[in-house]
Write a structure and sequence with these properties.
The complex is a heterodimer of chains A (about 350) and B (about 600).
Chain A lengths: L1 H23 L10 H10 L2 H18 L1 H8 L13 H4 L31 H36 L3 H15 L2 H15 L4 H18 L3 H14 L3 H8 L4 H9 L4 H24 L10 H9 L6 H29 L6
Helix pairs in contact in A: 2-15, 3-6, 3-15, 4-6, 6-7, 6-9, 6-10, 6-13, 6-15, 7-10, 8-9, 11-12, 13-14, 13-15, 14-15
Chain B lengths: L5 H14 L10 H5 L13 E2 L18 E5 L15 H11 L4 E5 L6 E5 L7 E2 L5 E5 L14 H10 L12 H5 L9 H4 L6 E4 L2 E5 L7 H4 L15 H4 L9 E7 L3 E6 L17 E5 L4 H10 L7 E3 L5 H10 L4 E14 L7 H10 L2 H7 L38 H11 L5 E7 L3 H16 L3 E7 L1 H9 L8 E7 L9 H5 L4 H4 L11 H12 L5 H15 L4 E12 L3 E2 L3 E2 L4 E2 L5 E2 L2
Parallel strand pairs in B: 1-4, 2-11, 2-12, 14-15
Antiparallel strand pairs in B: 3-4, 5-6, 6-8, 7-8, 9-10, 10-11, 12-17, 13-16, 13-17, 18-21, 19-20
The chains are: A mainly alpha (about 350), B alpha+beta (about 600).
Chain lengths: ~350, ~600
């Protein structure tokens, strides 16, 4: 069955190539390429995609290597570290740092300055925040994609009552207020894990991912369902059904490969949305408190913004760059995968 | 007296306790130099009394009539029922502007202190020899906002209401503690108005005590010791519009949101020796973000020029106020002591409690929690803050400089006690970023001292409830703070260290759950002493308790740093409450 699929895809790709490229360069030799290969080729020649891709990769590396980098530079992201300087050693009487900005000149020891009130290094905190943001966003994206795709496949392929039930559930989740759910969950988790702060920090990460997933899978599920609805009427699916191929196989071997494009697009667009959502929830104080996060830093920095703008701008710009790069990359991927676009 | 709000109680108080102090004495003391706070007089809340200042009207030289003052605060108001008002903000607004009581405080320009003067009474009361009977004569010509006369009967009814702990759980309990049959009489709603302790004879009110109560004139300054109109005083309704006898009355009040006070036409300045009525109205706006308040006042434009706040300015904005807007900043003392109270039933070894005091990161926690050293956080050792008569500094930990941390010394003490690795458990609000920061530095310091630090996460909303539960097994240390109700040990030791009946009263304000019959007896003995001997005796007791039992350690005294727009005049610190001197405020026209 795999061969059928590949052949079919290649045919699909040729169709695309033929449709677009034929009139321009009809004399060119038409080579057989899969849609994925075509998409990758297009991405490689797309400057925006390359720049945003490199930016994302760079931020990813910074986030993943946060412990290594901070260790190498001798920076601390939390006051609880036994070697971290005490707040009273590095701060003035009003909580502002006594080295570096805003009142003292720039120093390479702390390129982004120190956090008021705690005296931890802003650069270290930024890296760890980036790490958290990316981890949460990736986790939430993977989970919500898996759930959304499975449910969408089933709903689209199953006619009748199952489709109606699933569609109703999707509507139900779509109508439930997301912020309210997150607000209600936060204090419950705190009271459940009040005495074990390590567990609390982990529970908050899982709760945040769960909240994002629970309220984030519906869009993709609907999209996939719509795609499946049209695909299942195609000849290759009907042929498989006539041959007696089991439903599971049809779903995952026949239909899923044809859905790669919408899934890749959905993933690339939901990543930045989750990064922004994590920052937003942490800013509201209903996200993470036990681990550093960009939203938390932004929330903290608002109080001293008029005196210490750098403290606010660093995490804001980081979130902005990350979200923008992911979005542009997502756009490019969508364009690359879409057979209808031509440049 | 309690802090502005349970929220504050949670953030600030909780944090206070969290935030106390530490570090090296040679640290960043710029704040000390910067502030104009006289650290010897933090709580000199009306140490003076002046019965001769009994008549109005009060005029302020150069003051102009008119103008609207906008008051911004981050904190909503608790019950505004005079009987129940026991928070800094509710008490100060009611006493300063709306309701009159037996006595009141007036700001003394020369000394900068608050002085106790008569209010509804013509003097500060006369007492019998052993302070068990007080007589107050209610003056003529005082009217309600509806034009009716205020009578001695109205005042009696107000006092009767102050016995009711069920209808007014937040109110102060001094009537129950000191007045005749205070433990049996439960207020007019439950026990009727037949009560022998308060008698009216014409204009004269006679109050009988169950034990000597020399501080009665101070208790008389509480809104609870004022008139209440019988028949119009349903607790759930009266708190929304307490009937005014002072210069301003409620015009519109949305709890937790806004309050508008307008002039009371029936207030006669001739009868009032302290209050004035210069501004046309006061508009209070609660739940305003602190950052926004500071920005409005720093910008000082348009309406901002006639805006004020009784919240402390934020630490990040303090330097700008201090250097560029000094005339808009009002700093002064507040009769507040913040402390950490190990549960006396659980942490039974005095060495562990002392080790905790050595290990506590005073300076770091204060910085993390947003306090300004030398301004809103001042180091000390006595439970009673400076300024209370008879107070002399003592140090229960030889060699310990207040506000400093020595984890090595703490470790040594723990080792001596054989309690290395002792688990310390305390509450912090996980949804308050500053509380979380303070928690982090405390954990670090306690760990370095050989404790096992186990902070217990809770939320701002639940913190005070969890702390007040005597059977909360998750914690063994409570952080607390107490503001004196009047400058005497009598408003410190009975509530903070007097044993409580845990079953009936709960923790109350005895966060240490301290219970020593010896101390209870000494408190009782001092209350029976002649008034002149009490101040020295309270101070002696302060020292005695700290040296023998060390039930708690002070994490810092409070101070206030409030701010106002450039067109507001006469804004000083009421050191009795740590709030503005409402009676002196007027607006430049």
């Amino acid at each position: 069955m795999t061969t059928t699929t590949t052949a079919d895809l290649e045919k699909f790709g040729e169709d695309i190539d033929a449709a677009g490229g034929a009139d321009k360069a009809s004399e060119k030799v038409i080579a057989g390429k899969s849609p994925t290969r075509i998409a990758l080729q297009r991405l490689r020649s797309d400057k925006v995609a390359m720049i945003s891709g490199i930016t994302v990769l760079l931020l990813l590396v910074l986030g993943v290597l946060a412990p290594v980098i901070t260790h190498a530079l001798g920076l601390f992201y939390t006051t609880t570290d036994p070697n971290a300087p005490l707040p009273s050693e590095v701060l003035s009487y009003d909580g502002f740092p006594s080295v570096g900005p805003p009142y003292y000149p720039f120093t390479w020891e702390h390129p982004l300055g120190l956090a008021p009130g705690t005296g931890v290094d802003n650069f270290a905190r930024l890296l760890y925040g980036l790490r958290t943001s990316l981890a949460v966003a990736t986790g939430a994206t993977v989970l919500s994609t898996v759930i959304g795709v499975s449910i969408g496949l089933v709903a689209g392929f199953a006619r009748g009552w199952l489709d109606r039930v699933i569609s109703f559930v999707i509507d139900l989740f779509l109508s439930f207020p997301f912020i309210l759910g997150a607000l209600a969950l936060a204090p419950i988790i705190v009271s459940r894990f009040s005495t074990n702060l390590d567990a609390l920090a982990k529970a908050q990460v899982f709760a945040l991912i769960s909240v994002l997933v629970v309220f984030g899978w519906m869009g993709l599920a609907r999209l996939i369902r719509g795609q499946v609805l049209s695909l299942r009427e195609r000849e290759f699916v009907q042929a498989a059904q006539v041959m007696g191929v089991p439903t599971r196989r049809i779903l995952f071997k026949e239909l899923l490969p044809n859905l790669v494009a919408p899934i890749v697009v959905a993933v690339s667009l939901s990543l930045p949305a989750y990064v922004a959502a994590e920052a937003g929830l942490s800013y509201l104080g209903i996200g993470l408190t036990g681990v550093p996060s960009l939203g938390q830093t932004i929330n903290d920095a608002v109080n001293s913004y008029s005196k210490y703008p750098l403290y606010l701008w660093a995490p804001v710009i980081t979130v902005m760059v990350l979200v923008l790069a992911l979005n542009l990359l997502g756009d490019s991927i969508r364009d690359a995968f879409d057979p209808k676009t031509r440049r | 007296m309690r802090f502005k709000k349970p929220i504050i109680a949670a953030t600030a108080v909780g944090m206070l306790a969290l935030a106390a102090c530490g570090g090296s004495s040679s640290g960043n003391g710029d704040g000390d130099k910067a502030s104009g706070i006289d650290k010897e007089k933090l709580g000199s809340s009306g140490a003076g009394m002046d019965a001769s200042r009994a008549n109005g009207p009060v005029t302020i030289q150069g003051a102009k009539e008119g103008g609207t003052i906008k008051v911004l605060s981050n904190f909503g108001l608790n019950s505004m029922d005079p009987t129940e008002a026991y928070y800094q903000n509710t008490m100060s607004i009611l006493s300063g502007l709306v309701t009159r009581s037996l006595t009141q405080y007036v700001y003394d320009e020369k000394s900068g202190d608050m002085v106790l003067v008569p209010d509804l009474a013509t003097d500060l009361g006369t007492h019998n020899k052993d302070f068990t009977e007080w007589k107050f004569t209610i003056r003529d010509g005082v009217k309600w906002e509806n034009g009716k006369d205020v009578t001695a009967e109205d005042v009696r009814y107000g006092i009767l209401r102050s016995f009711d702990r069920t209808s007014f759980p937040e109110g102060a309990a001094y009537s129950n503690d000191y007045m005749l049959d205070g433990d049996k009489y439960k207020g007019p709603y439950k026990s009727g108005t037949d009560y022998a302790g308060v008698e009216v004879n014409g204009n004269t009110l006679t109050i009988k005590m169950s034990k000597p109560f020399a501080d009665m004139p101070y208790w008389g300054s509480f809104p609870a010791m004022g008139p209440i109109p019988k028949g119009q005083d349903k607790p759930e309704k009266y708190r929304l519009h307490p009937l005014s006898t002072g210069p301003y009355m409620f015009s519109q009040y949305t709890p937790e949101k806004s309050l508008t006070l307008v002039r009371n036409p029936h207030w006669d300045p001739k009868t009032d020796p302290a209050r004035t009525q210069y501004p046309e109205k006061y508009v209070f706006d609660f739940q305003t973000a602190s950052t926004k308040i500071d920005q409005i006042l720093l910008a000082d434009k348009g309406e901002g020029q006639t805006t004020m706040t009784y919240d402390d300015v934020l630490a990040p904005d303090y330097r700008e106020f201090q250097t560029q807007h000094k005339d808009q900043l009002v700093q002064g003392g507040s009769p507040l002591t913040a402390y950490w109270a190990p549960d006396y039933r659980k942490i039974t070894d005095i060495k562990v409690r002392q080790a905790l005091a050595w290990a506590y990161p005073y300076k770091d926690a204060a910085l993390a929690a947003g306090y300004i050293e030398g301004v809103t956080r001042i180091w000390g050792t006595n439970l009673m803050p400076p300024g209370i008569p008879g107070r002399t500094e003592y140090n229960p930990l030889p060699g310990h400089e207040p506000g400093t941390t020595d984890t090595a010394k703490a470790k040594q003490l723990l080792q001596d006690a054989g309690k290395l690795g002792y688990e310390v458990k305390w509450l912090f609000a996980n949804d308050d970023p500053q509380a979380v920061k303070a928690k982090d530095v405390i954990v670090k310091s306690l760990t370095a001292a050989g404790f096992k630090a186990s902070p217990v996460a809770t939320t701002v909303a639940d913190l005070s409830t969890e702390r007040a539960n005597p059977n909360n097994n998750k914690i063994n240390v409570r952080s607390g703070g107490w503001l004196s109700d009047w400058p005497s040990g009598g408003s410190w030791f009975p509530p903070v260290l007097g044993s409580t009946n845990l079953k009936e009263e709960g923790v109350g304000s005895n966060y240490a759950i301290f219970n020593e019959p010896e101390v209870d007896k000494k408190i009782n003995d001092i209350q029976m002493m002649p008034a002149a001997k009490q101040p020295a005796a309270w101070n002696e007791l302060d020292k005695f308790i700290a040296e023998k039992y060390f039930p708690l350690f002070v994490t810092g005294y409070g101070g206030v740093a409030m701010a106002h727009g450039s067109k507001i005049e006469g804004f000083n610190v009421d050191t009795a409450h740590g709030t503005p001197t409402w009676g002196n405020i007027w607006v430049q026209q």
